[in-house]
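Tutorial sheet, problem 5. The two components below are modelled jointly, 456 residues in total.
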Amino acid sequence: MMAKLDATVIYETIVTVFLAFWFLITIICQFRNTLLSNFFKHKVDVFGLIPLWTFFAPHPGKRDYHLLYRDKITEDNYSEWQEIDITEERSFWSWLWNPEKRDKKILSDVVQSLVTMIPAYRKEELSLNLLMFSMPYIIVLHAVSQCQKQSKDVYRQFMLAETSGYQKETNPSLVLLSTFHQI
Amino acid sequence: MISFNNTTQLILLILSVGVFISALEYIKKIQVFSDNGLLSWNVMQLRWNKQDQKPLLKPLSKLFNERGLAALFIIRCLLIISLLFFPLQSAMGWVLVSLLGISLLTSSLVTYYGSDGSDQMTMLIIITLIICNLPGLSSRRLTEIGLWFIGLQACLSYTVAGIAKLISSEWRGATAIKDVFSTKTYGSKKATLFLQKYPAANGFLCWNVMIMETLFPLCLFLPWPYAMVFLIWGFTFHFFTALIMGLNSFFWAFMATYPALYFINHQMPWHLF
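Model answer (structure tokens):
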């Protein structure tokens, strides 16, 4: 009985300390760019257990991103730009059942990651080429590579553009134009 | 069938609805995990570029394809249905919730992109329920500590979100909601037109969200009839974000924390007045 009680007390203490530590780390990681928060988020948190609660703040997303691609037919001849739809048209029942948000959010997240990374890579001209080896770039390239091809050997280029959604207050602008990749 | 007059059970029930719907949504969009899909494991495993991590990931290659993950999500749905018949406090119930937690942790390795705050809150709640209700080692006090953790994380979530908005010029300038709702990603044409027609609504909505989120932890310290104001606000807030922005999973994940808030409020030795 005493041994069981001790085990219960010990377990209770361990779990309480763990939960307190988890809560403290959550608070620390709300401040994104500290050394400690970067260490926990990028080196330790494999499963995404440290939540980020800064929803739509401090900079709310107010642009829609568009992913387009085209193929090189000959050296001077390119296909028309084709757009991959990454925004969802919601139905009446989307408040309850919204499977469309899954793939749209994936591409939207990836594009947002890429957009966030570009300024850092742009600081040095040579480093912009290294962007091609980043995870978001590879995922976007993988996504556009899966779209229909006219022939077996295709050279494909993708473009990221941004618009101001339904308000249309500003013109669409170019965010990133890739090189032609053989796919 | 289990009874729902237990706080922990109620949290699990509400959360399970959201997890069930999310699993079905993933099943509907399972092609996303195919070799040609956006979350193809061929690409996602590039997150781990250290040689010593690769042997650990090798077995996952067999699971992280369209068929493997479809099976995982179906198993997840079956686990949730089974939980209707076994309370968490029973050994079988705990095993079922633990398997549910393992399935969530496993799929999180491949759904790095596309997951959101609701997925994080779901994992947090499930893991807390698992470790605080371990048969044979947990106690009533530990279960209550788990409820405190869930409730405090919910309060932290709202407060951090509120403070992050308060320090934002776009939110203080009352343009944030109009801007977000005007995007096709998170908005709608009807909402955009409404806010263009009634610009004062922008200011009201922005400040309402900022103030209520920042002050949300007061729901723990106010007498219950007043604390309910925050919970009713939260219900309304999450319902309308689901309706307008399509963020349906947030509703269930955050509503699941509300029984914990009720528990903490009634455990408080004192209230503000």
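Marking note: The longest helix of chain B spans residues 140-166. Full credit if you identified this.
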